[in-house]
Design brief:
The complex is a heterodimer of chains A (509) and B (504). Chain A is an all-alpha fold. Chain A has 22 helices and 4 strands. The C terminus of chain A is likely disordered. Chain B has a two-stranded antiparallel ribbon. In chain B, a hairpin with a 5-residue loop joins strand 1 and strand 2. The chains are: A mainly alpha (509), B mainly alpha (504).
Chain lengths: 509, 504
């Protein structure tokens, strides 16, 4: 392989390189700090992280959705990689910002590692979004996963945290193995790890007729393995324990950034390698996307039903949010099952809505539960009397999660429903509707606590500036997505639209 | 006046803004401002009514602006998809059907605000939410865009949930939850129906959809499905048996002003939706399924009346009475002729005023005695003769005494059904009228006449501040009863136009 490295368009990898540089600087800073400083948990590391993330975002801003590939086609920048990187960088930025509030001693001791791990995980996510090859994809996945395992267990003396971390590792290991098992089939069948060449292989005449069953098996294992990252059925069991046991900022990271990366990976494998492959079978032209939709529909339906029903019984607010996250993953899977021309826009829009809404909610959960010293839902009791504006903000964010109008959550659900209806998949749309109504009960449960139940104290609530900042950003994003959904959708479609994706593959199912 | 509709829609915002700046300790000031804020939309609505051309069946005062653009794959006749930018509009307008309902909303809204002097707890938040609820209600009756309609519909859902859940009686949270879940399901079914329509016609604009559907080749089964989805969605709101259980809880647990609004206006949104989207969008299907409406109406009338008969609590009795009266609305709709539809709208409006008055009077009694149990009350006419008289009058209006609004409404609705092919339902339904007379008289007489228990002897009669809602509502009930043309004239052109579309 004769390649002049200096001639490659390295600029497309610039955000990742900047992130890597930031991680190295953080490592050095952490190593050279005095022990006393470390225990106090000073603001140097978070500030450096924020700076690094900001520069990375700036360099991301200079990139366009023009398709470009380097490193033997294993790193690919295109429209949706770009959008997912926005979600990952933006989400990480907000999580770091939220982490800047004063922690208790237990948190502070591990502070240095925490920021380094956070950025490493984000870096893994960025690679997942951009890879054009099974190997880079897997490396990205593991970078994200391993960093997450450690972050969950960072509170060394907290038993819940330990248990969560342990469960996370074990579950994650099984999921990774399942994924690899599927990936090995893909490699075995196609003889390549490159996702695009794989697609060409599958599309060869007669290939699917001979090996169709194996391709479906591979697909199934890959999706099931990935369901761990996006926390849908069947690999969702870790979520409640891990969400509850992890420090709240880590929970927020897992629910938004890690999930977005998982979806990026799913889209990457699914759409480049096989979704559009059409072949002759049974006398007609068939498309894998069509044949596979039913499996995804079942996973989506089960996630929506299970997540929402289990959330009803929770008294721990973080645990409840875990089931809520399972349910939302189910909603996001609906466009995959009810494939339609808008599907990737729907997924990305929903993830953006979810990013702002969920981080806003987690910021308030973090602030309020720390202040009250309990993670039970009744920590929110009487919040309205203590801080009307906080209660109002939380109400709007919760309404967005529940999918009420003039919030981003509503616009997101509206697009997903439109897609399901366009596809004619009414039974999945019905499940989405009924489970959304079930969800009203537990989201309004928090609203009930805030307005209708007396709290233990009436003292005005003082939240750390970091919490207020993240809450405000979340609120603004939620409202913009609700009032101007068209503009946001336009912004998503500018660098990338499923329209162009469909043109590549002649738009026929 | 330009932008009159938007002004009405947003006028409660002025109150919300002013209230936000007043400290929550100043309860009296907050109350006065809250009540006055509800007066502003009423005045503007009267201005609107004055400028309304009653001879026109068209949408009037139309306001239009582009809200956002949706890029959507549109299928042409050959099934080929192409990407098009579909503008989603902010469109408001009123016609002969929505105009009277809007006026009623403004009136009941203001009177309920005036009745809110009873609210002493968390006054500021109460009025903030109350005014937000008003915005939602106005929007529902003005919106000419399905998405916009849905948004305002949901605004009423969230605000009512909080108003019932915070200021209601003992089991308020249960009532609020039940309200939220039932109505949430209803509105989401409605949303799916709207999106299905959008996916077929590529617009949310209501007049356009109506015209498109008239000459459509859309699959018969799909249209029937849409019709029934709309029936269920708005049937929950109306409420149609068996979707009524939430409504009983809300009637019993909600604070008095909110029950006035709920029974007076919110239930009517269900009837309005049935008329506008059910019959209005599918005029050719309506005659085929009219018997379903008539049957449901009959069940509502008889079921409501019979159960109301055995109630021991004034509020529960009234709740079942409302179910029964909503059956009359369904009868009018099922008739699908001028008499029926007019009777149906008359009943929506008349019941809005009557039930608001009855609930207000129950509130007056409850405030003095601390109970709404019929067995514990009695002889109230001796200690509070004026209140007793008003209560009796309202009950008479409710059971349909001539010269009061209830009579003309029920008369027309029943007449309409007798003139249609569904006479049999109307004949059986008249039983309901007799039952209504029986339970209404029984209840009112047992509360106001007879021996008075010792402890109710010293009760105060109606006070000045309570007179505003009473006088206004009585006047309106009498006005419609004696001079129905006041209401029927604005309706006629629109109803004639509406009926012109039915058939096929």
């Amino acid at each position: 392989m004769n390649m002049d490295f200096t001639q490659l368009p390295w600029s497309i990898m610039m955000p990742e390189i900047i992130l890597l540089g930031t991680i190295l600087i953080l490592l050095l800073a952490e190593l050279t700090r005095y022990r006393g400083e470390r225990e106090k948990g000073d603001v140097l590391l978070p500030i450096l992280s924020l700076l690094g993330l900001m520069i990375a975002m700036f360099s991301l801003w200079t990139l366009t959705g023009k398709v470009d590939q380097i490193l033997n086609d294993s790193f690919r920048l295109d429209g949706f990689a770009l959008l997912f990187k926005w979600i990952i960088l933006g989400g990480t930025f907000l999580v770091v910002l939220l982490s800047m509030q004063d922690g208790n001693g237990e948190d502070a001791k591990s502070r240095g590692e925490y920021y380094i791990l956070l950025l490493t995980a984000a870096l893994g996510g960025m690679f997942m979004a951009s890879s054009g090859d099974l190997i880079t994809l897997f490396v990205g996945l593991e970078l994200l996963s391993v960093s997450s395992y450690i972050m969950v267990g960072l509170r060394k003396r907290n038993i819940q945290s330990n248990e969560a971390s342990f469960k996370y590792v074990v579950n994650g290991g099984i999921a990774t193995a399942t994924f690899l098992f599927g990936a090995s089939y893909l490699y075995g069948l196609s003889g390549t790890t490159n996702l695009f060449q794989m697609a060409q292989q599958f599309a060869q005449p007669g290939f699917m007729n001979s090996f169709g069953t194996l391709v479906y098996a591979a697909f199934f294992f890959v999706v099931v393995g990935l369901s761990f990252k996006i926390s849908t059925v069947p690999f969702h069991m870790w979520a409640p324990d891990v969400y509850q046991g992890a420090p709240t900022t880590v929970t927020a990271f897992l629910s938004v950034v890690s999930k977005a990366a998982g979806f990026a990976m799913l889209i990457r494998i699914f759409f480049t390698s096989f979704a559009w492959v059409s072949y002759q079978g049974g006398g007609t032209t068939r498309v894998i996307l069509h044949d596979a939709a039913i499996y995804l529909a079942i996973l989506s339906a089960l996630s929506m039903i299970l997540g929402n029903i289990m959330a009803l019984r929770q008294i721990n607010v973080k645990r409840m949010m875990a089931y809520s996250a399972i349910a939302h993953a189910g909603y996001i899977l609906v466009p995959f099952a009810a494939y339609n021309n808008l599907m990737i826009d729907q997924v990305i829009f929903y993830l953006f809505a979810y990013l702002f809404t969920n981080l806003g909610v987690f910021a308030l959960i973090d602030g309020v539960t720390r202040e009250r010293g309990t993670e039970e839902i009744r920590a929110f009791a009487g919040l309205y009397h203590r801080s009307p504006f906080t209660a109002l903000a939380m109400t709007i964010l919760l309404l967005s999660l529940a999918g009420f109008p003039i919030t981003a959550g509503f616009s997101g659900k509206l697009y997903i429903l439109l897609g399901a209806i366009q596809n004619g998949n009414l039974w999945l749309a019905s499940i989405l509707i009924v489970t959304s109504v079930i969800a009203y009960y537990y989201y309004f449960g928090i609203i009930r606590q805030m307005y209708m139940r007396p709290g233990q104290t009436e003292a005005p609530l003082r939240l750390p500036t970091a919490v207020l900042a993240v809450m405000t950003i979340g609120l603004i994003g939620t409202l913009i997505g609700g009032f101007f959904p068209g503009q946001v959708l336009q912004w998503i479609q500018d660098p990338f639209s499923s329209n162009s994706l469909f043109q590549i593959f002649d738009g026929k199912f | 006046m330009p932008y009159l509709l938007t002004s009405i829609l947003l006028s409660p915002l002025l109150g919300i803004l002013i209230l936000s700046f007043i400290p929550k300790e100043k309860g009296g000031l907050l109350q006065r401002i809250g009540i006055l804020s509800a007066l502003l939309p009423l005045l503007l609505t009267i201005l609107l009514f004055a400028g309304f051309d009653i001879h026109s069946a068209e949408n009037q005062f139309t306001e239009n602006a582009e809200w956002f653009t949706l890029t959507y794959p549109v299928a042409d006749a050959g099934g080929q998809l192409s990407w098009q930018s579909l503008p989603i509009q902010y469109t408001l307008a009123v016609d002969g059907i929505s105009m009277p309902l809007l006026l009623m909303t403004a009136i009941v809204g203001f009177l309920a605000a005036a009745a809110s002097y009873q609210v002493r707890r968390r006054v500021k938040e109460y009025f903030l939410l109350f005014l937000a609820l008003e915005i939602g209600m106005f929007g529902v009756f003005m919106a000419q865009n399905l998405l916009l309609f849905f948004i305002f519909f949901e605004v009423t859902l969230v605000t009512t949930f909080l108003l019932v859940g915070i200021w209601g009686f003992t089991n308020r949270e249960k009532a609020a939850n039940s309200f939220l879940l039932y109505n949430g399901l209803g509105s989401l079914i409605m949303l799916v129906a709207f999106l299905l329509l959008f996916n077929q016609l590529y617009t949310f604009d209501m007049p356009t959809i109506r015209d498109h559907l008239a000459g459509t080749t859309m699959n018969e089964g799909l249209r029937a499905g849409l019709f029934f989805a709309i029936l269920v969605a708005f049937g929950i709101k109306l409420p149609i048996f068996p979707f009524h259980s939430w409504m009983l809880k809300v009637h019993v647990e909600a604070p008095v002003p909110i029950v006035m609004i709920h029974s007076g206006v919110l239930l009517k949104m269900g009837a309005y939706g049935l008329l506008r989207f059910g019959i209005g969008f599918f005029p050719d299907l309506a005659p085929r399924f009219a018997w379903v409406l008539a049957l449901l109406g009959l069940v509502n009338i008889l079921y409501g009346a019979i159960i109301a008969f055995v109630q021991r609590d004034l509020k529960r009795m009234m709740a079942f009475s409302s179910i029964s009266h909503m059956g009359v609305v369904l009868f009018g709709l099922a008739a699908l002729n001028a008499e029926g539809i007019q009777g149906s709208i008359f009943q929506m409006i008349s019941h809005g005023f009557i039930s608001a008055l009855l609930f207000f009077m129950i509130g007056v009694i409850y405030e003095r005695t601390g109970t709404s149990n019929i067995d514990e009350l009695g002889g109230l006419a001796r200690s509070m003769p004026f209140a007793g008289g008003v209560f009796l009058t309202a009950a008479m209006a409710s059971l349909g005494l001539p010269l009061l609004s209830g009579f003309i409404s029920e008369f027309q609705a029943f007449l309409g059904l007798f003139l249609s092919d569904l006479k049999a339902y109307a004949a059986v339904g008249t039983l309901g009228l007799i039952l209504t007379a029986a339970y209404m008289l029984r209840t009112v007489l047992r509360t106001t006449f007879g021996p008075i228990p010792e402890r109710w002897k010293g009760l105060n009669d109606v006070e000045t501040k309570e007179l505003i809602p009473i006088a206004a509502l009585l006047a309106l009930i009498l006005l419609i009863g004696i001079y129905p043309a006041a209401l029927s004239d604005p309706l006629q052109a629109t109803i004639t136009d509406f009926l012109g579309r039915i058939g096929g």
